[in-house]
Amino acid sequence: MSLLKNNLLLLALMGLFFFSNPSFAQREIDTEAKPPLKDRMYFGGNLGLQFGTVTLIDVSPLVGVMITPRFSSGVGATFQYYDDSRFQGAEGTSYGGRLFSRFNVLPNIFLQGEYESINWEAYDYNAEDFRRIWSNALFLGGGYFAPFGSRGGANFTFLYNVLYDRENSYYAEPYVIRVGFVM
Asked: How many domains does the chain have?
């Protein structure tokens, strides 16, 4: 996709969700009623598919728990298959996990901190070959929650990796934009 198409798509998605019907509120928990753990848990994640010159399949489930009405934490896993036919040897898998915490500043606006560790095949310029390494990231940022129904919704998250290392980072840039779903 061209840069113009990517920008237009992002603008359209942001417009759609920022002007969505506010009558659907995020699920509230009453801490004094002491709801059971299963009522405070949520599940979701990301699913990414891209086919063509660059093929990418991303499956990243997560599970979280509401600790207070405004604060939640959770864990997630990531598995990706990639194949970039433009480069020899640019095919493989990556996998890892993450821990995250979210704080709702407003009902639909949240701050997020996340620690992620990904195992992937990086190119070693000294050995002139690929080698598997663990790459760590500490993301800080925020996002927007677009609710639908009584429990579900979509998350639009904008994160910045404060541990970004151009030579060993899994990501090409220090910022990451994610779109995910929760139930």
From this structure: 1
Among 114, 111, 112, which Cα is nearest to 75's? 114
Contact 97, 76 (CB under 8 A): yes
Burial of 32-43, coded b for 16+ CB within 10 Å and e otherwise, reads eeeeeeeebebe
Distances in Å between the alpha carbon of 135 and those of 6, 13, 38, 117, 173?
27, 30, 33, 6, 14
CATH number at residue 63: 2.40.160.20
Nearest to 81 by CA among 53, 114, 48: 48
Q: Is 118 in contact with 94 (CB distance < 8 Å)?
A: yes
Q: Which tens digit of pLDDT belongs to each residue from 51-100?
A: 988 899 999 999 999 999 999 999 999 999 998 888 776 788 999 999 99
Q: What is the pTM of this model?
A: 0.77
Decide: 156 and 146 in contact? Cβ < 8 Å. yes
Could you list the residue range(s) of the whole structural domain that residue 85 is in? 3-182
